[in-house]
Amino acid sequence: MDNDKAYRILNDLLTEPRLGRLYSAMKTMYSELKISHNWEHIMRVTLNAVVLGTEENANLRLVIPAALLHDIGFVTNPSEPKKHNEYGASACHSYLTEWSEAERKKISDIILKHKGKYPGYTAYEPSTPEEKVLCDADQIDKFGWVGLLQVIKVYAEYGSIGYKNFDTLRGLAEGIEEASHIELYTDAARKMAEALKEPSYHEVSKSVLAELAFYEGWKD
Ligand SMILES: [Fe+2]
Ligand SMILES: [Fe+2]
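Structure for HD domain-containing protein, as requested:
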């Protein structure tokens, strides 16, 4: 899909007044926050969701509000990043008062199941096209050169709150290796990932660990 088509589809969706209001509210709220899952990330995921949702025939009227709200759990409960999907699935309701209860439930489920799957992480399995599309749209932000920078930024932030060994370069390299095993759910996302296969996270991780060996060999 060319860029202009994706922008056009999103612009059309945002003419729906309640969605336009949600977009503006999220943009304002995120602009105050200095976190890795910031407005830039939300917008990359939202645009990925437009592309994937269109190609997978998902209902974008559910996927896009979910994309805008998907990481709200990082904002409400910053000390527990691993559970941000669960926190987000309940926190989203208060932003969706203009949506029906049935819609809110679906959007909440999309948020609950967005976390992605790779070794060492348990995830709620996405099952509907909308759930699969948002999950993949978020994971695509861990592919390619932009993805590599985002992975490092996110993991370094986790490291600063004591999560895993992500406060060390070894920890970051191990995290990058983990990110090379992400499982995608849709053909559209696999196609997008194929275009973003450089750099190989496996190679990046291996090279960093090889260079670190010299420094890690020091014994005092
Ligand atoms: Fe997330
Ligand atoms: Fe995200």
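The mean pLDDT is 96.
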